[in-house]
Write a structure and sequence with these properties.
Layout: H1 3-14, E1 22-27, E2 31-36, E3 41-45, H2 57-62, H3 74-78, H4 86-107, E4 112-116, H5 120-123, E5 131-135, H6 139-145, E6 151-155, E7 170-171, H7 176-182, E8 185-189, H8 191-195, H9 198-204, E9 210-214, H10 223-226, E10 232-238, H11 241-249, E11 261-268, H12 271-280
Parallel strand pairs: 5-6, 5-8, 6-7, 8-9, 9-10
Antiparallel strand pairs: 1-2, 2-3, 4-11, 10-11
Helix pairs in contact: 1-4
Length: 281
């Protein structure tokens, strides 16, 4: 069972598979957002490469069924996270994040703790001696890390996601196993949940002292991720679901989430949590 299948299965157990309906779905330029009838809202990265852009009946059949998503059963729509079409996966991951918010409101964070206002890199205890490998070019983290750690590598499909003096950090996805295996800290952006490959990335990161899953897409029920080696999950908690839906549908990026969502870190019990609590204090 891969991590997404385990995530869905664990949520079913925690929430007892109780009925939940999807009330709204927005697929924006940068993010996809899904609201549940019970009030929770989840987001996911909208994939950039759409080689399967709808242009004919065959590709339309593979895409999310626009006009028929709202009103669907949330558990059925969450299964989209396991599909091959990346846009359908984005919708499914957003549903799973909304269900995750519901589960954590009810059951807390088994095996860890949720900390407000703590930066994921601080929670991970990243220091100048660390060799940091990132999967996904998350610009705020690159700016925070460059020149401040011993080594920095950024694995991304898009070399042009890095600019100027950042280009030497770039590595192709083919180099991921070697790069992740050499890192003391691994930071994987939540986009890997949508674009695929997260299980392989986590397997390659087993030698790292700290593994971080970060970004709004990484706002997940944490237990299946903790069990697969993740120490820190730096995501968001949605404060105003209606406003977030509007921002996403108007093409807003994460920079526009301020005031309608707050940063949170979910940290696994152990040394990582001790460090994160000292940072939070």
């Amino acid at each position: 069972m891969n991590v997404i299948e385990a995530w869905l299965a664990d949520l079913r157990t925690v929430l007892h598979g109780e009925p939940a309906a999807v009330s709204d779905v927005r697929i924006g330029v940068f993010y996809t957002a899904v609201a549940l009838g019970t009030g929770e809202t989840g987001v996911a990265f909208t994939p950039r490469d759409q080689a399967d852009t709808v242009c004919c009946p065959r590709s339309a059949a593979a895409a999310p069924q626009a006009g028929r998503l709202a009103g669907q059963d949330a558990w059925a729509l969450a299964r989209e996270a396991t599909e091959t079409n990346s846009l359908r996966r984005a919708v499914g991951i957003a549903v799973l994040n909304a269900l995750s918010a519901r589960a954590m409101a009810r059951a807390g964070v088994p095996g860890g703790a949720l900390l407000l206002g703590v930066d994921a890199l601080q929670a991970a205890g990243v220091g100048p001696e660390d060799r940091v490998a990132m999967v996904g070019a998350f610009v705020p983290f690159i700016k925070a890390l460059k020149g401040r750690v011993a080594r920095l590598w950024v694995v991304d499909r898009h070399r042009d996601a890095l600019k100027g003096d950042e280009l030497p950090f770039w590595r192709s996805p083919d180099e991921a196993p070697e790069v992740l295996g050499a890192a003391s800290v691994v930071v994987i952006t939540g986009s890997a949940l949508v674009e695929g490959g997260l299980d392989a990335f986590l397997a390659a990161s087993r030698g790292a002292r700290r593994v971080v899953l970060a970004g709004p897409t990484a706002s997940a029920w944490p237990r299946p991720f903790f069990e697969r080696g993740v120490h820190v999950m730096g995501g968001i908690r949605v404060l105003d679901g209606r406003a977030l839906l509007q921002v996403v549908s108007e093409g807003g990026s994460g920079y526009f989430f301020e005031g309608i969502a707050e940063k949170v870190c979910i940290v696994r019990e152990g040394e990582a949590l001790d460090i994160a609590r000292r940072v939070a204090a």
